[in-house]
Design a protein that fits this description.
The chain is mostly helical. The protein has two domains: 1-31, no CATH class; 34-80, no CATH class. The chain has helices at residues 2-17, 19-26, 36-61, 68-79. Helix 3 crosses helix 4. The longest helix is centred in the middle third of the chain and has 26 residues, at 36-61. The N and C termini lie far apart (68 Å).
């Protein structure tokens, strides 16, 4: 019985000192593990979605329906 308690105490101490490394292996932080390519591709996808939304707005109601803010944003996105 004493052996089990000693082993359990050692396990708890081990887990306490290495809790950060254990947590990273079990549930890694995805933002921390981003590469430059992953970040670039994520930005590209979000820009493309925003462009698609603005173009669908133009397709439904015509170019005159865009606000000045939307036109400027579409201009910015098209230059990137």
């Amino acid at each position: 019985m004493n052996t089990i308690l000693i082993l359990l105490a050692i396990l708890v101490i081990f887990a306490y000192f290495f809790r950060r490394e254990i947590k990273e292996k079990v549930a890694p932080n995805k933002e921390k593990n981003y590469t430059i390519d992953d970040k670039f591709n994520a930005d590209k996808v979000s820009r493309q979605k925003e462009i698609d939304q603005l173009l669908s707005k133009i397709g439904k109601n015509g170019l005159d329906d865009l606000s000045e803010k939307d036109r400027k944003r579409l201009d910015e996105l098209s230059k990137m």
